[in-house]
Amino acid sequence: MRPEHEDLGPGLSTRLTYLFKRALLDLEELHRDQLATSGVNARELGVLLLLDGREPESQQQLAGHLGIDRTSMVGLIDSLEGKGLVERRADTDDRRRNVVVLTADGVSTLRHATAASDEAERRLLSGLDDAESQQLRALLVRIAASDRGDRPAP
């Protein structure tokens, strides 16, 4: 059951940790609902999106891009391969290395799942107008891309 925002008090209800977590939980629930007919979950969709239109990469490279440990990545690729959405292939430049590529079914599923994900995001942001939604996305992109290692401690 979702806690009422006003019942939490200002000490918690205005903290970024709480706000990001609440938004993430809501988005995950919306993704579960919207992606139900696509045959993939949000994590699998992330892998498909990463593979789309890129040069084939190894599981280890994909895991690094997504910030996922190698064991979890193997499970994701196994699941997607079992659904016929990706294939492991020998790298044409280094036959000792396998790369992961989308299949034709993977491309089709990606289109369907991306539309479902777009709807989940639209529903999450339904309380914002278009300009606010774009601003929020732009600010989050800046936060995600910023290098916090060179900032002085407050």
TrEMBL record:
Matching Gene3D superfamilies: Winged helix-like DNA-binding domain superfamily/Winged helix DNA-binding domain (1.10.10.10)
Domain of life: Bacteria
Entry-linked InterPro entries: HTH_MarR-typ, Tscrpt_reg_MarR-type_CS, WH-like_DNA-bd_sf, WH_DNA-bd_sf
MF-aspect GO terms: DNA binding; DNA-binding transcription factor activity
A family per Pfam: MarR
Transmembrane region(s): none
SMART domains named in the record: HTH_MARR
Leader sequence residues: none
All copies of domain HTH marR-type, residue ranges: 13-145
Protein name listed in UniProt: DNA-binding transcriptional regulator, MarR family
Origin species: Microlunatus sagamiharensis
